[in-house]
Design goal:
By secondary structure, the chain is mostly helical. About 40% of the residues lie in helices and about 0% in strands. Helix 2 packs across helix 3. The longest helix is centred in the middle third of the chain and has 13 residues.
Length: about 80
C-alpha cells in the first residue's frame, strides 16, 4: 500500500498547494496518482495486476478522474 500526497495536498508549502491545473478538473492530481501507481507497479515485489486506487471525498473524485482518463483497464477504483 502507498499513500499519494498529490498536488494540492497539505504540508508542502503554498506553491505545492496552489498549483496550475489543480482543482475541480483534478488535471494535475490524477497524474500524480497514476505516476505513483506506475512506479509501484515497476517494483519487483508488486503484482501490477492487483493494483487498485481509492480515495475519500476529494480523493475519490481524483480516483474517478484517473480511471476515466485511463479507461480503467489496469486500475480499480472504489
Amino acid at each position: 500500500m502507498i499513500s499519494v500526497n498529490y498536488r494540492k495536498g497539505v504540508g508542502y508549502g503554498k506553491s505545492f498547494r496552489d498549483c496550475k491545473g489543480c482543482g475541480w478538473t483534478a488535471a494535475s492530481e490524477y497524474q500524480d496518482v497514476l505516476a505513483a501507481a506506475q512506479w509501484f507497479g515497476q517494483q519487483p515485489y508488486v503484482d501490477k495486476s492487483k493494483i487498485a486506487i481509492y480515495g475519500l471525498s476529494y480523493g475519490a473524485f481524483v480516483c474517478l478522474v484517473a480511471t476515466n482518463a485511463t479507461g480503467a483497464s489496469s486500475h480499480s477504483a472504489w
